[in-house]
Amino acid sequence: MLESLRAHLPPERVERILQRFQDDAEALVQEMHEVIDEPTTLGRTVHRLRGKSLVVGADALASLCADLERHPAADDRQTQITAIGAEIQRLKQALAD
Fold first, then answer.
1. Which of 1, 40, 66, 96 has a C-alpha 20 to 30 A away from that of 58?
2. How many Å from the N-terminal Cα to the C-terminal Cα in the chain?
3. Are 32 and 84 in contact (CB under 8 A)?
4. Is 21:49 a contact under the CB 8 Å cutoff?
5. Cα–Cα distance between 94 and 65 in angstroms, integer?
6. What torsion, rounded to 10 degrees, do the Cα atoms 31, 86, 13, 46 define?
7. What are phi and psi of 38, to 5 degrees?
8. How far is CA 5 from the centre of its chain?
9. How far apart are CA 57 and CA 55, in angstroms?
């Protein structure tokens, strides 16, 4: 998807999209930590991040989000959210390089 964005949009627009994605992703992970004990709200937050991830082609992140949506076991939520946060950091680094 990212290649498609770059092929069809001016570079400035792509950069704005990616920056917005990074900002939104970090805010959504923070929200996940805040609502970790509210399964319905957590599910909506994770779903939003999964959708945004798919738009920019962050398939690994979208997959982690889908896993949390499908299997939100109370004892595993923190580990899943941590993995999502780590993937966002990895993506940020890859985009910066």
1. 40
2. 19
3. yes
4. no
5. 19
6. -40
7. -120, 85
8. 18
9. 6
Rounded to 10°, the helix 77-96/39-56 angle is 20
Distance CA 24, CA 26 (A): 6
CA 92 – CA 32 distance, rounded (Å): 19
- Three-class secondary structure assignment of 51-67: HHHHHHCCHHHHHHHHH
Q: What is the pLDDT of residues 73-96, one digit of tens each?
A: 778 899 999 999 999 999 999 888
Helix (H) or strand (E) holding 17: helix 11-34
Tell me 97's DSSP state. Answer: -
pTM of the full predicted structure? 0.89
Model pLDDT for residues 62-79, shown as the tens digit of each residue: 999 999 999 877 788 999
